[in-house]
Amino acid sequence: MMSRQSTLSIFSETEHIELNSKTANSRVVQLSVKEKMFDTWQLCKYYLWREEFSVRPRNRVDIRMDVEKLVNTLAFPFGERLRRGTSSVGIFAFLPTIMVTKISHYNPS
Questions:
Q1: Is 22 left (phi over 0), alpha (psi -120 to 50) or beta?
Q2: Cα 57–chain centre separation
Q3: Residues 27, 13: contact at Cβ < 8 Å?
Q4: Are 23 and 53 contacting, i.e. CB atoms less than 8 angstroms apart?
Q5: Is residue 42 included in any domain, yes or no?
Q6: Is residue 1 scored above 50 in pLDDT?
Q7: Which one, of 80, 94, 10, lies nearest residue 49 by Cα?
Q8: pLDDT 10s digits, 11-28
Q9: β-pair partners for 7
Q10: Which pLDDT tens digit goes with each residue over 54-97?
Q11: Domain total of the chain
Q12: Is pTM, for the whole model, over 0.90?
């Protein structure tokens, strides 16, 4: 099976704004993507919103006692979107990878 995406990199980063709270920032990144070895580079822009949240001591559990902050990042495309086949690439969310919950019927794995 051949991989569809061979290269992805951040081409540029602009409009970086650090908010007064120091827990959130935003920026615009321009991604450079090359789908296959002989294709030309495609460029697309994403608006990134990144925010840190402190973990309260009462919300810590054994498996994550060392985690003091959670960082969430949302990426919204604007301008010309990347296309993969017939669909365009949409919104991305970069969230903590392991969730722990006390809800008995919820199993994230």
A1: left
A2: 26
A3: yes
A4: yes
A5: yes
A6: no
A7: 94
A8: 778 878 887 778 888 998
A9: 34
A10: 888 887 877 778 888 888 888 888 877 766 655 666 777 776 65
A11: 1
A12: no
Amino acid identity, residue 70?
L
Which is nearest to 45 in space by CA: 89, 93, 95?
89
The alpha-carbon radius of gyration of the chain (Å, integer) is 18
Residue 19 lies in a domain: yes
What is the pLDDT at residue 2?
47
The answer to whether residue 104 sits within a structural domain is no
Interatomic CA distance for residues 88 and 19, integer angstroms? 31
Residues 58, 75 contacting (CB under 8 angstroms): no
Q: CA-CA distance, 51 to 24, in Å (whole number)?
A: 4
Place of tokens 């498996």: 63
Tokens of 92: 């991305």
Assigned token pair, 38: 């002989």
What domain range includes position 87? 7-94
- The answer to the question of residue 109 being in a domain is no
